[in-house]
Amino acid sequence: MTEKRGRHKIFIGMAAGVGKTYRMLQEAKNLKKEGIDVVIGLLETHNRQETLLQADGLEIIPRQSINQGNLTLTEMDTQAIIERFPQLVLIDELAHTNIPNSLHPKRYQDVEEILSVGINVYSTVNIQHLESLNDLVARITGVIVRERIPDRLLEEADEVVVIDVTAETLEQRLLDGKIYAPDKIQQSLANFFQRKNLIALRELALREVANTVEEEAQESLSSSIFYPIQERVLVCISTYPNSVRLLRRGARLANYMNVSLFVLFVAHPDRFLSKIETLHIETCQQLCHDFGGHFLRVQSYDVPNAIAEVAERENITQIVIGESQQSFWKQFFKGSFTQKLMKLIGKKQIDLHIIATEK
Known about the structure:
The chain is an alpha/beta fold.
């Protein structure tokens, strides 16, 4: 045996039925074809036929039997896996709580022991099982999740893959009987599998993994070559009174996405603001702070270029601007402000939102 720790790959999704186990098995079978020694340590198919078929041809480590009074129950046999010592073991349902008298109270602790001896592990988990999200998931779904894993498992994992489907697709899978038995379908649709719950859980799964990956990227890459993964919203205001309305729209966007908000005012170096204009900008600045945003003020003769520079520096992914106040003839001779900005940010994968304003 080796003292080198095994690599851990986690397949995570918003709920049961998104295809985590299927994808794990699919990748494992491809690796087996390449000559990798792969075994199944613990598989929960829930009688899903597609999953059962995908597992065909893979060696399964028998479960261990544990006596519980008059009952004999089974759990994953961690010691048998270590003795078999494959290159890769597949372990379903990372957050599972083991029955009493097992080697460890939680399955993720079995996984950590297997990793510690140098065996690579593929595992699966749903987003609602993360410890830090427990209260939020309870508020969203009304369900208190009892089986949880520490957040550090995602942070320590060598790779985390989100298995993502739309809420509509998952609902259809449920109705088609691909997730639960027919007698549980309507109950699930009325409770945990309500569309609003699925949409919120999907957003949580995508955001959680994006946050984890971005933190790793910031630690390993210099800021000069860092590519943003987490969304960031930049609202561009001016001295026009409708900037307050624009700022509120941008703040709602940032709040909906639960991401950072930046507000930018580009001042002309040769122009002094009137008292009313100064008061307006101060109002926007205070409103930005009320929304928990970051207020930025720069001077430039070239407003589109200044916006593009700030967007690049702050790793902005969404820019919100108001509809152009330029006259037709000014746009004709000097070019549209919006067109200039789009040209500057076009290759930076930044989305531009143009909000209609009152003239």
